[in-house]
TrEMBL record:
Residues 1-125, 144-209 form the Exoribonuclease phosphorolytic domain. GO terms for biological process: rRNA 3'-end processing; rRNA catabolic process; tRNA processing. Belongs to the RNase PH family. The lineage of its organism: Bacteria, Bacillati, Armatimonadota, Fimbriimonadia, Fimbriimonadales. It comes from Fimbriimonas ginsengisoli Gsoil 348. It is an enzyme of class 2 (transferase). This is Ribonuclease PH.
Length: 223
């Protein structure tokens, strides 16, 4: 796993993350406006867009030129929700941070990698706003990261790649904050239903992975 901060020269914040053979580029753009439904509320907004390059995966994907497909819509809404969970939107004023998340190489866990890199990109975007006196105080409350877990052959696995994910009996995506609170738990039994003790082991394994990711975020951000 590596994270490269400031990968995109002209973005207010960016992070290029590599976790195994999944490589994601996330850029953060700051705009002094909010969507129409937020106008006049004195509050900011954090949103995301997600896409996979045509040959990021094993087959060519069609580009989302006009409208994102259902999967992309679901993932970008997830990323936006997760990032907003660690922001004090009122402290932003009427400003928007847009996170563009692009899969360069996809081998499972792209949404988790995107969320993890989005925090680094968001942090730098906030620092840009603070330096330019666009904010009175820091709206970022804490770090957030995401990891996948699953069960294959009766064994719990952390950070599944494509082959493991496609054949797992159970797979989950877990999003957690630095303080150890859950933002999102997405889990499905693909074959046999799983017991509550299995769920407990998967959550503990996910927490271990998230803690490692947050430690790397802090190292990259020099915190």
């Amino acid at each position: 796993m590596t994270m490269e901060r400031g990968f995109a020269k002209f973005a207010e914040g960016s992070c290029f993350i590599k976790i195994g053979d999944t490589h994601m580029l996330v850029t953060a753009t700051v705009e002094e406006r909010v969507p129409p439904f937020m106008k006049g509320k004195g509050s900011g907004w954090v949103t995301a867009e997600y896409s996979m390059l045509p040959r990021s995966g094993r087959q060519r994907n069609q580009r989302d030129l006009m409208k994102p497909n259902g999967r992309s819509m679901e993932i970008q809404r997830l990323i936006g929700r997760c990032m907003r969970s660690v922001f004090d939107l009122e402290a932003m004023g009427e400003k928007t941070i847009t996170l563009d998340c692009d899969a360069i190489r996809a081998d499972g866990g792209t949404r988790c990698a995107a969320i993890t890199a989005a925090y680094v990109a968001s942090y730098d975007a906030v620092q840009y706003m603070l330096r330019n006196r666009m904010l009175k105080r820091n709206p970022l409350r804490e770090a957030v990261a995401a990891i996948s877990v699953g069960v294959k052959g009766g064994q719990e696995l952390l950070d599944l790649n494509y082959d493991e994910d496609s054949t797992a009996h159970t797979d989950m995506n877990i999003v957690m904050t630095e303080s150890g609170r859950f933002v999102e738990i997405q889990g499905t039994a693909e074959q046999e239903p799983f017991a509550i003790d299995t769920l407990g082991r998967m959550l503990k394994l996910a927490q271990k992975g998230v803690n490692e990711l947050i430690a790397e975020q802090k190292r990259v951000l020099e915190l």
